[in-house]
Structure formats: C-alpha cells, structure tokens
UniProtKB/TrEMBL annotation:
<dbReference type="InterPro" id="IPR001017">
    <property type="entry name" value="DH_E1"/>
</dbReference>
<keyword id="KW-0670">Pyruvate</keyword>
<feature type="domain" description="Dehydrogenase E1 component">
    <location>
        <begin position="46"/>
        <end position="325"/>
    </location>
</feature>
<keyword id="KW-0560">Oxidoreductase</keyword>
<protein>
    <submittedName>
        <fullName>Pyruvate dehydrogenase (Acetyl-transferring) E1 component subunit alpha</fullName>
    </submittedName>
</protein>
<dbReference type="InterPro" id="IPR050771">
    <property type="entry name" value="Alpha-ketoacid_DH_E1_comp"/>
</dbReference>
<keyword id="KW-0786">Thiamine pyrophosphate</keyword>
<dbReference type="InterPro" id="IPR017596">
    <property type="entry name" value="PdhA/BkdA"/>
</dbReference>
<dbReference type="Pfam" id="PF00676">
    <property type="entry name" value="E1_dh"/>
</dbReference>
<dbReference type="InterPro" id="IPR029061">
    <property type="entry name" value="THDP-binding"/>
</dbReference>
C-alpha cells in the first residue's frame, strides 16, 4: 500500500509557494494580491494556530469538554476563508476555526461551544457562517439546499460583485464516504447550484486512512457527478486562496458547483479524546512537519526581505495578547441557565413545550432544595 503522503507530489497539485518559501506560477491560478496581503495572511495563520493551541491547553486543564484541533490545516482555512466575499455563506464542520476567524466570529464563541456552555453563540446570518455541524457530511446537504435558495432569489450570475453569492461547504476526506455528500453532489450539479465543496483531505477520518475511503484522488470524484474538481496544496495559503477564489467566482457566475480538494495533513489528534500514536507512524508526521503552512510563508517573507524581526515580534505579541484574553475569558464564562435550551431550539413555544419547561425548571430547582435539607 502506498503511504498517503506519497501522492502529494502528483503533478495535478496546484502549488504557488513551495515548502522552502519559493513562489511558483500556475497557468490557471494566479495569485493576484501583493506582499502586504501575504503578511496579513501570515498574521491570520499565527493567530489561528494560537487559538488552536490555547484551546487545546484549556481542554487539558479541564476547562473544555473536548477540542477539535486544526493544527496543520491553517493554510487551507485561511486561504479559502480570505477568498470569500461578505455575502457568501459558509457551512462548516467542527474544525473550521480558521474560517471562523476570517468571517469575524469571536474565537470565544467557538470555545464556549466546546466548553458546553452554549450551542454555538454566534449569529450565522451576521457572519455568513453557519453553526458547526458534528454529523459528518450533513452540512453538504444544508449548503446545497441553501445554494438552491440563493439561486432562486436571483443572487447568482447577475454580474453584480456586491450581489452574486456563493455557498461553501467544508468537509473532510472521511465525509466523502457518506451518502449525504454523494446526494449533495448530485443535487448541486443537476440544479447548477452555486456551491463550492471544500474538502480538507487531512489523510485521516479519525483512525481510518484515506486509502480506505477512496481508490482515486478525491478531486477526481467530481467528474463522475458532472462538475469540475481541483486538487490544491492545502498547506500553501497562496494556492488555496487562488483556487478557492476561482471556484467561488465560477459558482457566483452561475457556473454551478466546484469541488476543491485541499491536500493537507492533520498534525494533531482527531480531537482531544483521541491518541493518533495508536494508528499512525511518526515518520508520517515528521514528513508533513517539513510542509508546515506557517513556516513556508515566513520563509518567503524572510528570504525576500519583506518582513523584519520587528514584524514577527509584533505578530507573536498579538498572539500572546489573544491567548491571554482567551484564557481569562474562558474561566470567567458563566454556567448557562439550563432552561435556556427550551428558548433556543424551537421557533415557537407550543403549550406542550411550555409545560415541559415548567416541569424541568421545578425539577432542576429540587436539587438546590435537597442540598439545603442535607
Ligand atoms: C454521521 C456520523 N457518523 C459518524 C460520526 C463520528 N465521527 C466523528 S468525526 C469522524 C471522522 C470524520 O473524518 P473526516 O470527514 O475526514 O473529517 P476530519 O475530522 O478528519 O476533519 C467520525 C466518523 C459522526 N460524527 N457523524
């Protein structure tokens, strides 16, 4: 069996920045931003990694119930997230902390979800960023349905850059084995829905390797459904930006769905509940460390004299400030009102729900009364 990482050298992989920090050109995908934008991407990458490592440590200290780390996947998320326009709409999984950062969602809202004090405390409509979906692949159907709605609202192919809208569904390699995802592919292509399926192929679905999910590279699956697919170096923030930007534009222009496979690697555990040393070899991780998405942008900036020591120090200082804010604010989060679940789940309160809520409030209060007696 071929090691998963051997495939990353396939010629179809779109790459604009090598692991050594050298720029590459691609005939179909040009990077059209300047070096200041690349410095901005570097800032995003470092901040996102720090949110991730901080949340991981908070989980280890017992402050969070669980955390799904994005370590290694920062470039896939920042590149694609920065390619979005304000009016676009994102359906994430549970690992899209970098995309959330690009959409302006407060990282504390993500942390609150994993602490179990709320159900996702951000307004999806405000940020164009849906709540996290834990059910593998389900969000691809939500995204397809939403995209069909966008199309029917006349928000596709009008040539108005402020108006034309694309929808993105993020998913993992393992999710492509789900029926939901295959149904979403069929619906989106036959209805020409403006949706981009952004697969972060991080090589593992918990302990199942990509070899057990597919006999062919994932991006080629799209052609079987009748829409285009492209594989991009998911550790290259410039390439993920350029490829996603083109895919989003095709969707907004009325060209239908596109599948983007970001070829990347999950450097950490699946979640904080999991031990990857039980199923994967250390040399695989060591191989991918050489492709680190942050190191290659830093190498580019340094080797071209575009950023000095003061710039990197400032980025680290910003990350330290954010980390301190996340730590202290997480510990200060109040416990939720248990009855709140009744207010948030349903649009309308039926008499039965009102009755259930009253019973639940009394039942819950009985514990406090018992504690006073004893
Ligand atoms: C429908 C469903 N089946 C199983 C699970 C349990 N589960 C949680 S994460 C996961 C693996 C997902 O792998 P992948 O799609 O590659 O995404 P990744 O976590 O690697 O980003 C599974 C099977 C689930 N959450 N939902």
């Amino acid at each position: 069996m071929t090691a998963p990482y051997a495939r990353s050298d396939e010629p179809e992989l779109v790459q604009l920045l090598t692991p050594e920090g050298e720029r590459r050109e691609h005939p179909d995908y040009a990077f059209d931003l300047d070096d200041d934008a690349i410095k901005g991407f570097y800032h995003d990458l470092v901040m996102t990694r720090r949110i991730d490592t901080e949340a991981f440590m908070l989980q280890r200290q017992g402050e969070l119930g669980i955390w799904a780390s994005l370590l290694g996947q920062e470039a896939a998320q920042i590149g694609s997230g920065r390619a979005l326009r304000k009016q676009d709409y994102v359906f994430p999984t549970y690992r899209e902390h970098g995309v959330a950062w690009c959409r302006g969602v407060d990282p504390l809202a993500l942390i609150g979800l994993f602490r179990g004090v709320d159900h996702g405390n951000w307004d999806p409509a405000e940020f164009g960023f849906h709540l996290y979906t834990i059910v593998i692949g389900a969000q691809t159907l939500h995204a397809t349905g939403y995209a069909m709605g966008v199309q029917r609202d006349g928000l596709v192919g009008t040539n108005d850059a402020e108006r034309d809208t694309a929808v993105v569904a993020y998913l993992g390699d393992g999710a492509t084995s789900q029926g939901d995802v295959n149904e979403a592919f069929i619906f989106s292509t036959v209805f020409n829905a403006p949706v981009v399926f952004f697969i972060q192929n991080n090589q593992w679905a918990i302990s199942e390797p990509i070899e057990k999910q597919s006999r062919i590279p994932l991006y080629r699956r799209a052609s079987g459904f009748g829409f285009p697919g492209v594989r991009v170096d998911g550790n290259d923030v410039l390439a993920t930006y350029a490829v996603t930007k083109a895919a989003l534009q095709q969707a907004r222009d009325g060209g239908g769905p596109v599948l983007v496979e970001a070829f990347t690697y999950r450097m950490g555990a699946h979640t904080t509940n999991d031990d990857p040393t039980r199923y994967r070899l250390t040399d695989e991780l060591e191989h991918w460390k050489l492709k680190d998405p942050l190191a290659r942008v830093k190498a580019y900036l340094v080797r071209n004299g575009l950023a000095d020591e003061a710039f990197f120090e400032q980025v680290e200082a910003d990350a330290d400030t954010l980390a301190e804010h996340l730590r202290s604010s997480t510990r200060a989060m109040p416990d939720p009102d248990p009855a709140k679940i009744f207010d948030l789940v349903y649009q309308e309160q039926t008499p039965e729900l009102v009755e259930q809520k009253e019973w639940f409030v009394k039942y819950h209060a009985s514990f406090a009364a018992q504690a006073e007696v004893h």
